[in-house]
Structure formats: C-alpha cells, structure tokens
Design a protein that fits this description.
It is built from 27 helices and 21 strands. The radius of gyration is 34 Å and the shape is elongated. The strands form 2 sheets. The chain has a 6-stranded mixed barrel with strand order 2-3-8-5-7-6. Strands 12-14-19-16-18-17 form a 6-stranded mixed β-barrel. The chain crosses the membrane at residues 261-285, 306-339, 359-376, 397-420, 426-448, 717-737, 773-795, 807-827.
Length: 842
C-alpha cells in the first residue's frame, strides 16, 4: 500500500471523532500550556526591562561610588560627557517620630534638583516634586512609603526626624521611576532632597552610603565608548558602571533563573503527561485490533500500519499543541493585572513568539517520544494472534531501529531544554533526576504488583476477602499499577522535593537565629562615639555580648598585578565592594588557617588577612599581592594569612582585614553586633536611636523575616509550577480509571452475583486505589527527599534535615488522589445490572 492510501485510511478513521484521545489531548495541552505560560511571562518581563532600561536605571548610564561622593574632578568629567547629571544618595537610616516615641528602619533616597531624568514619581496626594520638597512650616518636605507611614502612624503634615534633621511628611510615596535599580532593601523607602540632609549628620566620610550619578547622554551616544571613557578617565576612583542595556541585572537574573527553573518543572509535567499520552495511544490501538488485522490480511506492510497511525497521532499532537499554546498565551493575558501589580518592573503581557515556539517544540518531541513504542507495538503484532484475541507474542524490547529513534528523540528533548534554559549543567542534572525517578517508579510499580500477588495468597488474609481481592487485583494481569504509580508518583516527587527545599530553607534560618544570630546590627557609628556606645551596651544586663570593628569598603582591583576578574573570574569577592577592617591584634574568636598575623605595632608595607574559603575558591596563596581600592585610594598589600570566616551566622564577617597603619587616615565608621535577650531589645533600640540619632540600628530578626518572606514568595511560585505536574498526573489517573471502567463493571457484576453487597465491592475498589496511592506517595517521598537533599546541599549550600510532616502530607495526598480518581469511576459499575453485564459477555 502506498503512502497516499495510508493517508486516506488515517483521515477516515479520524472522522470518527476524538473518542479515546481526550486524555492524550489533555496531557499534551497541559504540559505545553505550562511551558508557554511561564515563557510568555518571562519574555514579557525581559522585554519590559529592555524597553524601559533607561527609566529603570534613572538615566542612559550610571556611575556609582561606594561610601563617598564623586570628587570635583570626577564630577566635572561626568558633566563633560552628559547633557544632564543627577546625583542620588542611597542609604539606610532610622526614621523617628518627632517626640522620639517610635522609630523604624527606612531606605533613604536623597536626590538633587535634576532628578528624575526620565519618568516621574507618583505621590498621594498628587503634587509636584518641587512642592513636596519645599515642605511647610520652615521644615523640608519628604515622602514615605505607605507601609512606613502606617508603621509610624503618621499623616501628611506630621513631623519626623532623620538623624538630627526634622522633616515634614508631605505625601505617601507610591512609586519612583528608578526604584527597580535600588535592589533589595530591609526598610521601606523615604524620599528627601539631598541638600536637606546637610545638618542631619548622616552623610559624612566613612558612613555607609552609595552615591549614584545618573547620566542623560546626547542622542546617538555610543554606550560602549562612553563606558570605556569613564572607566579610563576615572579608573583611580574605581567607579562601577551600568547602562540602560541592562539597567536591572539583579531583577533580570532573578526573573531569568526562576523562569528557567519553572520551565524545567513544566518539562517534568510534560514527562508525567507522557505516561498518559503513551497509555492513551496504547488503549486506542488495542481497540483497533480488528482493523489492523484486516489491513494486514489485505497486504498492508508493517511500515504502512505505522504510517497510518503515526499520521493520526501527528494530527492529534498538532491539535493538542495548539490547544496548549492558546491556553499558555491566554492565561498571562487573563491574569495580566495581577501579574503587573505583583512585579516591581514594567511588564506588558502579550503574545511572545519565542516561548510559544519553544513550548511547541517540547510538546512535539515529547509526543513523538511517548507514542513511538505503542506504534511499534501495533506494527509488530502477528495477524493470527490478533484474530484469536490471544497473547500478542511481542518481544520484551522493540526493534533496534525503534530503540535508536527513542534515544535520539530523548537526546533532542534534553538538548533543546539545555539550549533554551541557558544552564546546561542544571538541565542535565534535572533530566537525570527525572529519568532516575522514572526508573524508580517503574520498579516500584513492578514491586507493588509482585508484593500484592504474594500477599494475596498468604494464610493470614483468610477471612478477609475484601482485602485479599483488592491485593489480588493489584497483582493480577491487566491492572493499572504501573501507570498509576508512575504518573502520580512523578508529580508527587516534584512536590515532595519543593516541600523539603522550602522547609529546609526556612528551618535553616530558624535554627540559626536563637543560637547564633545577634539581635542588632549597628552601623554608621562614628569613631568618637564607639567608646560611649560600648560602655552603654556592655553595661546593659540584658546584653550577653557585643562585637565591634572598624568598617571600610573596598574593591579588589588586582591580584599579582593582573586585573582581579581575570584571575578570579566571576567570583563574588571581585564583584562590587567588600568589607574591609583593621586590627592590631588577632580579634577574639578568630582562627587563622594558614600564615601569621602581623606583630603589634607593625608599620611596614601593607599586609592582608583574607577569608580562607574564598581564597581557596579564587586560588589565592600566601605571599600573593592584592590591590584594593578604598575611597579612591589604591592600596597594594601582601597576603599574610587566611582566616576562617562564617558568613552564615548574621554576625560580622570581613573578607579583608589589614594592619592599622595600612589604612591610617582613611575616613571610616564602626559597626557593632549586639547579642541581647528578646525582652531587652525594644528598650535598647529606643535608647540607642535616641542617644545617637545618626547611627542605624538594624533588627536582625526583622531582616531575617524579610528574607524569609522573599524566599516564601519564590517557593510559592515554584510550588504553583509543581502543582501543574500534579494536575497532569491526576489527568493520567482519570484516564486510567476511565479505561478500566469496563473491567470493573464486569468484576462488580461477578461479585454481586456471588452475593457480595455493594459495600464490599466499593471497599475492594477503594483498597486497591489506596494501595497504589500509598506506593506512589512513599516512592515520591524517597525521590523528593533525595532531590531536596541535593538542591539544599549543592545549590543552596545549607544543611539538610528531612521534614516528616511534609512527607506525611505527600503520602496522604497520594492516597487521597488515587482513591478519588478510582471511586469517581466506580459508581457506574456498582449500579450496573449483573444479568445485563454477564449476558453481554456470552
């Protein structure tokens, strides 16, 4: 038979409708829709960031200095290359009520008269920026986040204080155009004019602030040339450059990585759906036994049989992909207002062709992969066996060509995922994990059948006919144990892994907080204040410990005369500025791992003590030379020792420590960590803020709560993605239950004929469903636990502790889902007339 004949036969069979392919379409459409929806949202956000890069950044380009403002010469150069330059000072401080009765941490944005270059702030009530800053009653004006206004119980016209300067609250700060470039802050924002901070005592040499200079460049300016010129002309001051091409790298990276991870979760859902796709195709082809036999008798070759049904599957695959793409593109549009409101960046959701093409390719490859073996099975069945309705006589494995095609399709699917995700290592690891879970679940399905068959024959079950029949059914031929355990187990495995990761992240913080973390982190302590503050804190009976250290910030510029990033790569210690301190003697609770501390009174060439773990990661050795730019001054020192530094306990941890003479004359402030009883925290914070208004007291407990909340949002997004996998598994379960309805009807008829009441028959169906659900849940707990351990240990770098509560919920969920799916299709078999059913099988 020719290909044209095969096409006509395929077209005529499809004319009979989609009966038997609803599960196929649902599984494929769900997987494609999940990937398309995640990709559409990610692409829309990235497009918005690229389109509004200058607005989000606050200018076409930005030059940033750490803890100092630009010098007159540096500012003059920036003025020479830009049409407009605006200075923005960003720092944390304490906003206090006028009477000192309450205070709260805030992130202050201090701007000049040229701000903003692009966009406009939004105030409530609406007013011009000049009107807001003009204030009233002789006091400068300010705007505050509504959250901070509620926290301090303020209203427009009320007074508050920053440092030693009083302000009047003029309006609530609804939004600022360049807010997305500010990064994560522990306090709600306050907007003021930088000139009004002159008497506050908050901006001085050595205090912790960032000075950002946003540039409006001439039309058509070459950003690469401007960047090169800035970095060359201002190299001595070690400025950090950013431009509108990537105005919000932190947001972009976070969105990109979360989106890629969710796409991998979507692929897991597509893998679960593949089980349903394969089962649906297999069930459809089983119903075509007589048709296939007739075609073979009429001379149809194996290839013709394969082509007929491959064409049908291809058409249905295209239909399923189209349905999935419509849903995946439509969901973000339907929820556009909610998505836009939840994101701090502009996003215009619309049809993005790239993610849709990616999702379609995933769907096509997955459908081909999971339908190949059922199609091969159909073409290899013997005609005589088909007509006798006997065993098919198939070999355990398909032909070598089918095995080769399977390997190629799997490699193409994984390779495509690695290419599109941009993280091949993580993608390959995830693919290996999914494949391992598949094998584990297949083995679990086989083990459940063998165990059920063995247990059904034990003497201990005599007198328990319901349980015995349920086990015999699970272990008997033609049961759906494998598909149930596989489809549900993979979905539950993803949820189990997410649950373990989430609980371990939250648990790590909670475990560390009471025993390790300090109560307060105090910054911006001036050198002439540290002794008095130390006396006040250490004399408080509620304080158990106080650590203090001088604080500077420096940028590592060179290692052994070479640019630091060429030596250390993209390691975090050479990105941005790092904490620098000095000490005459080895500080308490400090352990040297290699080298020696400098002697007291040392006044020779600068020496450096570096964090041991980070030194090992970038290949630093004792005796290496390192250049550090501190407040525009380049200091080159020799690495004399390595220290054990723990950055996980919320205490003080400095990457770099130097001998005091190396930093002599450098303006700086002090920082302190205070360990106090919870009952003493409120009074201590109030007293410190009132006595020294310029210092900033950060509650570590509140900061950890903010981080925990942020992680909770990320975990929620991942959980919602994982739920798609579970929904797909539930669809597969429904398909398996629907496919077995005819067999259960006959079984119920036989049992009722033998005198079994409806309750016994229903209990039989419920027990077999519960057995399979429990098996899937137990395997999911094991697989999810391994995945959670791997992510916690190697990605999050936290200690892993198995969470039994989450595991129990997974097992119970597996039992509940399978019982609901099984019982939903048990009512019709129970209500069928035994006489009619048995007469029809004669």
């Amino acid at each position: 038979m020719s290909l044209g004949v095969a096409m006509r036969i395929a077209r005529r069979e499809l004319g009979g409708g989609l009966k038997g392919f609803r599960i196929f379409l649902a599984c494929l459409a769900l997987g494609v829709a999940a990937i398309a929806a995640v990709g559409t949202v990610r692409a829309s956000i990235e497009a918005g960031l690229a389109r509004e890069g200058a607005v989000l950044l606050g200018g076409d380009g930005r030059v940033e200095y750490t803890y100092r403002r630009a010098t007159d010469a540096e500012r003059a150069y920036l003025d020479s290359v830009a049409e407009i330059v605006t200075e923005v000072i960003d720092f944390r401080s304490m906003a206090q009520l006028d009477d000192g009765s309450d205070r709260a941490l805030t992130q202050v944005k201090a701007v000049d008269g040229a701000w903003p270059i692009y966009g406009a702030p939004v105030f409530d009530p609406p007013m011009a920026t000049d009107t807001l800053f003009a204030g009233q009653g002789g006091l400068p004006g300010a705007a505050m986040s509504p959250l901070l206004i509620d926290r301090l119980e303020l209203a427009p016209g009320d007074r508050f204080r920053l440092g030693d300067q009083d302000f009047v609250l003029m309006a609530a700060l609804v939004s600022v155009p360049d807010n997305a470039s500010a990064g994560f802050g522990f306090g709600p924002p306050t907007l003021v004019r930088s000139a009004d901070l002159a008497a506050s005592g908050l901006i001085r040499e050595g205090t912790l602030f960032n000075a950002e200079y946003r540039l409006k460049l001439p039309p058509g300016a070459d950003l690469d040339a401007v960047q090169a010129g800035v970095q060359e002309a201002l190299a001595e001051g070690a400025p950090r450059w950013r431009d509108a091409r990537n105005g919000t790298p932190g947001v972009s990276n976070a969105v990109e990585r979360l989106g890629r991870f969710l796409v991998l979760v979507g692929l897991a859902g597509l893998a679960v759906g593949g089980v349903g796709i394969s089962a649906a195709v297999r069930a459809y082809l089983d119903e075509k036994t007589e048709t296939i036999a007739t075609l073979k008798v009429l001379g149809a070759a194996r290839g013709t049989i394969f082509a007929i049904y491959a064409m049908q599957i291809g058409v249905l695959t295209a239909l399923g992909i189209v349905i999935g793409l419509v849903i995946g593109a439509g969901l973000p549009l339907a929820f556009a207002p909610m998505i836009s409101a939840a994101l701090p960046v502009p996003v215009e959701l619309g049809a993005e062709p790239g993610p849709l093409v990616e999702a379609a390719l995933y769907g096509a490859l997955a459908a081909a992969l999971f339908t190949l073996w059922p199609l091969a099975r159909a073409q290899d069945i013997r005609v005589a066996a088909l007509y006798r309705d006997a065993a098919t006589g198939l070999s355990r494995w398909p032909r070598p060509t089918i095995l080769l095609a399977t390997v190629l399709l799997l490699a193409a699917l994984v390779g495509l995922a690695a290419l599109f995700s941009g993280t091949p290592t993580i993608t390959l690891a995830a693919a290996g994990g999914i494949f391992g879970a598949f094998l584990l679940l297949v083995l679990a399905g086989w083990a459940v059948r063998r165990f059920a068959r063995w247990a059904a024959g034990r003497r201990g079950l005599r007198g328990r006919p319901t349980l015995r029949m349920a086990l015999a059914s699970v272990g008997g031929p033609g049961n759906d144990a494998a598909s149930v355990v596989l489809s549900l187990g993979l979905g539950l495995s993803v949820l189990a892994a997410v649950g373990q990761i989430d609980n371990n992240l939250r648990g790590a913080i909670q475990r560390e907080l009471p025993s390790v973390a300090p109560s307060f982190f105090v910054v911006d302590i001036q050198p002439d204040q540290i002794d008095a503050l130390r006396t006040r804190v250490e004399g408080d009976p509620g304080v158990s410990r106080m650590d203090t250290a001088p604080m500077l910030r420096g940028i590592i510029t060179t290692i052994n005369g070479q640019p630091a990033q060429e030596v250390a790569g993209d390691h975090w210690v050479v990105r941005g500025d790092r904490g620098v301190t000095y000490s005459e003697a080895l500080p308490d609770r400090t352990t040297l791992t290699e080298g020696e501390w400098w002697p007291e009174g040392y006044a020779g060439a600068p020496l450096i003590s570096f964090s041991a773990n980070e030194a090992a990661e970038i290949g630093l050795r004792i005796g290496d030379e390192m250049g550090v730019n501190i407040l525009g001054r380049e200091i080159t020192g020799t690495v004399a020792s390595f220290r054990a530094v723990d950055f996980t306990n919320a205490g003080m941890g400095f990457t770099i420590a130097m001998n005091p003479s190396a930093l002599a004359g450098a303006p700086h402030s002090w920082i302190a960590t205070i360990y106090a009883g919870q009952d003493a925290e409120a009074a201590l914070m109030r007293d410190l803020s009132r006595t020294w208004p310029n210092i900033t007291v950060i509650s570590v407990r509140d900061a950890i709560g903010a981080v925990t909340g942020l992680m909770g949002q990320v975990a929620a997004a991942i959980t919602y993605g994982a739920l798609i996998t579970l929904v797909t598994g539930a669809v597969v379960l429904i398909g398996a239950a629907a496919a077995g309805e005819r067999a259960r009807t006959y079984e119920a008829a036989v049992l009722k004929t033998l005198g079994a009441p409806r309750a016994i028959v229903l209990a039989n169906f419920a027990l077999r469903s519960a057995t399979l659900g429990a098996a899937a849940g137990l395997v999911a707990v094991f697989a999810g636990g391994i995945a959670g351990w791997a992510v916690s240990r190697y990605v999050m770098e936290t200690e892993f502790a198995f969470d039994p509560g989450s595991a129990l919920l997974i097992v119970l969920g597996g039992v509940a889902v399978t019982m609901l799916a099984g019982l939903a299709f048990a009512w019709r078999p129970l209500s069928a007339s035994p006489a009619g059913v048995l007469r029809a099988r004669e």
